[in-house]
Amino acid sequence: MKEMTKANLQAAFAGESQAHMKYMVFADLAEREGLTNVARLFRAASFSEQMHATAHLRALGGANVTVKNLEVALGGENFEVEEMYPAYMAVAKLQEEKQAATSMERAFEAEKVHAKLYARAKESAEAKKDLDLPAIFVCEVCGYTVEGAAPDKCPICGAPLTRFRKF
Fold first, then answer.
1. Rounded to an integer, what distance in angstroms lies between the CA atom of residue 73 and that of residue 127?
2. Could you tell me if 68 and 55 lie in one domain?
3. DSSP letter at 57?
4. Are 142 and 160 in contact (CB under 8 A)?
5. What is the arithmetic mean of pLDDT over 13-22?
6. Which of 18, 52, 86, 160 sits 20 to 30 Å CA-CA off 42?
7. Cα–Cα distance measured from residue 118 to residue 131, given in angstroms and rounded to the nearest whole number
8. Whole-structure pTM over 0.70, yes or no?
9. Residue 111 to residues 22, 63, 121, 142: CA-CA distances in angstroms?
């Protein structure tokens, strides 16, 4: 693929991915405000943006067999834990941006768990076996992820058990 087309597809993928997530957040907020049809519109548009992002990722050759996808996911999580979030948190603290620092610290802690899960999943996939995985619970406040059972209180943000979503 020619460089300009590749760069354009990468930019389009990033933009569509961000729109997808932004519209999901907007939908949740509209729902809380009792605007169910506005929420439905945001969710429909979000799904459409997800389809665009998916097509762009495929055109870039970014969706592969599971072992390769796990390698990519693990690499991304390790980058976030080892480089990205430590640097971002340092800047936020230096600039006394407390909300940004808290958001990044919480994500940093959750990403550590994701990296471990992806590493295990990659080992299983390489052995041609599915991952032995109990229920997964994710804190709806900070993204903390745990296997088996949700804690009574999130160890990262302190959210109660009722704020964990089961997967």
1. 18
2. no
3. H
4. no
5. 98
6. 160
7. 10
8. yes
9. 20, 21, 15, 11
Distance of CA 99 to the CA centre of its chain: 19
CATH number of the domain where residue 157 is located:
2.20.28
What's the domain range around 10? 3-59
Mean pLDDT of 15-40: 98
> Of all helices (H) and strands (E), which one includes residue 18?
helix 3-32
Same domain, residue pair 55 and 86: no
Which structure tokens are listed for 65?
Answer: 């067999």
Lookup result for tokens 């990044």: 104
Tell me the three state secondary structure of residue 64: coil
Cβ partners under 8 Å of residue 66, min gap 6:
125
**Each residue of 93-118: pLDDT tens digit?**
999 999 999 999 999 999 999 999 99
145: phi then psi, degrees, rounded to nearest 5? -120, 135
Closest by Cα among 107, 134, 109, 108 to 120: 134
